[in-house]
Every structure is written in structure tokens, then in C-alpha cells.
């Protein structure tokens, strides 16, 4: 599958929501978009993460861990 997301963007996209989940907070996608310093809309980020979860499942965090 072809995507316009770079690997670095995917790594950031996986890491940011994990911080919300650790603290038991609801993910604020507008905040995630600002923190990633991307011009992508919050909805696109949310859909991309959902797609990554579908394709990688429980291996998501391990496969996109920061180097």
C-alpha cells in the first residue's frame, strides 16, 4: 500500500498518542498535530493511526519505536 506518510511521521504519530493513553487522557488530535509540527489535518492523523493499528496490530509500538 502506498502512503504519503514518511516513516519519521509514523513514529511520531505512534509515540504522541501513547503518552495520552499512559496518563489515562483522551487523545486530542489537534494537539497531536501541533506537537508533530505537521500541516496534516488532525482527522488525517487519526485515520492514519487507525490504519497502522489495523495492519500491525499489537506490534504497533514496537515496530515504530524511536531510534
Automatic annotation (TrEMBL):
Top-rank lineage group of the source organism: Eukaryota
Q: What is this protein's name?
A: Uncharacterized protein
> What organism is this sequence from?
Phytophthora cactorum
Amino acid at each position: 500500500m502506498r502512503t504519503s506518510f514518511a516513516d519519521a511521521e509514523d513514529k511520531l504519530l505512534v509515540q504522541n498518542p501513547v503518552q495520552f493513553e499512559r496518563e489515562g487522557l483522551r487523545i486530542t488530535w489537534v494537539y497531536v498535530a501541533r506537537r508533530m509540527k505537521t500541516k496534516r489535518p488532525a482527522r488525517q492523523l487519526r485515520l492514519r493511526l487507525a490504519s497502522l493499528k489495523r495492519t500491525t496490530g499489537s506490534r504497533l509500538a514496537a515496530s515504530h519505536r524511536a531510534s
